[in-house]
Design goal:
The complex is a heterodimer of chains A (270) and B (165). By secondary structure, chain A is an alpha/beta fold. Chain A is built from 8 helices and 10 strands. In chain A, 47% of the residues are buried. Chain B is an alpha/beta fold. Chain B is built from 6 helices and 7 strands; from the N terminus they run αβαβαββαβααββ. Chain B is globular, with a radius of gyration of 16 Å. Classes of the chains: A alpha/beta (270), B alpha/beta (165). Chains A and B meet through helix 5 of A and helix 2 and helix 3 of B.
């Protein structure tokens, strides 16, 4: 069993957990973990589903902290000791399934309402945030099953507020960025890191129509302007930046696309 | 695909106008306009318009604020297109526009009706440069060009603002 001494399971540390995720049997000891963010919780949820579907064993020793257990339960994470217990309000927005374009408006409204109930947002930042959520959520129906090879294509999103920031996470187990871009002539056989580079540095999409694509690059620029953090993980590569630095990194393989943004409160509160 | 349906309705409405007619897209009542929806509806419709699929018709954007039209602006830049956005009594050129385009358009809007020759004099431009600016504005359906004769092999145009009043 792999034991993790890390006490925070977050955008920055979850990849250590995914080492060996493709093995026949995965055993994770998370007992020492005292903090989990929405990005990590979505990846744990996807890992559970991935193992279930592949018939691979997944054994997790869950965090011992009652606070973390309660939060995981509030987030709606399945398969842990307190899952299914009466939900509290620790989670700002629990794990929410995203399936099709028609449902995006309702999901965005739910996220927006939860946020607006707790915080006085400026009108401009409220609009910007909604527009960002729409674009990111739309990526799931638009791209996660671009090749038409995924059974039950869907994704999930979750959100949590902290003292100084808000974290929004969106994840799917779809075809990933390189397979999606590979549908465009001339872009076959891309590495995951190459696909991230094309999307974030050149604004390329799988469509040759010049008006399509560029949304992720634009969102990344907006997050930079807010001094935020962005993590976009696909296959074996992670594009990550925070206010101090950023790059594309090699990470353990995991299918689909997972994304998180951490936004400082001061950037958009009234 | 809500955007596709909305664009089809928009193009049907545009076609129902007489040649030279103008369609105004009002964003009032909208909370947020996503960039992909903006492109699907406005970007692609404008792309068709500039390919002369709709004769001399024009499209204007009317928005309670310029911020609400951000998505349209971003997508038009990406498509190398531009359009006029009205906010209250002010007009703004959004999308892929240059100060030179805005300067020329402003003069045409101010005068309502003019010629390239007049503009060249007023803007202190070489005639060729002025003709190129005007041709770009006309191509984007930001002004209406009316052929009134010929000077040698070249057509002579009167330029009309597409803003009424």
């Amino acid at each position: 069993m792999r034991r993790f001494e890390i006490n925070r399971l977050t955008i920055e540390t979850i990849d250590a957990v995914l080492e060996g995720a493709g093995r026949e049997r995965i055993e994770l000891d998370l007992r020492a973990v005292g903090f989990v963010d929405p990005y990590a919780v979505l990846i744990l949820e996807l890992l559970r589903v991935d193992c279930d579907e592949a018939g691979r064993g997944l054994r997790i020793l869950w965090p011992e902290s009652p606070r973390v257990r309660r939060w995981l339960s509030d987030m709606g994470l399945q398969g842990h000791p307190t899952s299914g217990s009466k939900a509290g309000d620790d989670a700002l927005q629990p794990i929410t399934r995203i399936e099709d374009e028609a449902g995006i408006g309702r999901v965005v409204e739910r996220f927006h309402r939860r946020l607006a109930q707790r915080y006085p947002l400026t009108e401009m930042s409220r609009r910007a945030l909604i527009a960002v959520l729409i674009e990111l959520f739309q990526n799931i129906p638009h791209h996660s099953n671009a090749t038409g090879t995924i059974d039950d294509p869907h994704g999930a999103a979750a959100m949590q507020d902290y003292e100084d920031s808000i974290v929004v996470a969106i994840a799917d187990r779809g075809v990933g960025l390189s397979a999606s871009l590979g549908l465009r002539d001339g872009y076959q056989g891309l590495t995951d890191a190459g696909a991230l580079d094309l999307v974030f540095h050149q604004g390329i999409s799988r469509f040759s129509d010049p008006g399509r694509g560029g949304e992720l690059r634009r969102i990344a620029e907006l997050i930079r302007s807010w001094d935020g953090t962005l993590a976009v993980r696909t296959g074996r590569a992670l594009y990550y930046f925070d206010p101090r630095s950023g790059d594309t990194y090699d990470v353990p393989y995991f299918p689909g696309l997972q994304l998180a943004l951490r936004l400082p409160m001061r950037a958009f509160l009234a | 695909m809500e955007g596709v349906t909305a664009r089809e309705k928009l193009l049907t409405a545009l076609l129902s106008l007489p040649d030279g007619g103008q369609l105004q897209i009002h964003l009032e009542g909208l909370d947020v306009l996503s960039t992909s929806f903006a492109d699907e509806v406005v970007g692609k419709a404008l792309d068709r318009l500039t390919r002369d699929d709709f004769g001399d018709r024009s499209i204007l954007l009317v928005s309670p604020s310029l911020e609400l039209a951000d998505g349209v602006d971003a997508k038009l830049k990406q498509r190398q297109l531009a359009m006029i956005c009205l906010t209250g009594t002010a007009w703004h050129l959004i999308g892929a526009c240059t100060p030179a385009m805005t300067e020329t358009l402003a003069r045409i809007i101010e005068k309502g009706r003019t010629t390239a020759k007049e503009l060249a004099g007023e803007l202190d431009l070489q005639m060729n440069a002025c003709v190129n600016r005007v041709a770009r504005l006309a191509k984007l359906h930001l002004v209406r060009r009316e052929e009134v004769g010929r000077s040698g092999p070249q057509p002579v145009y009167v330029l009309h603002s597409i803003l009424k009043g």
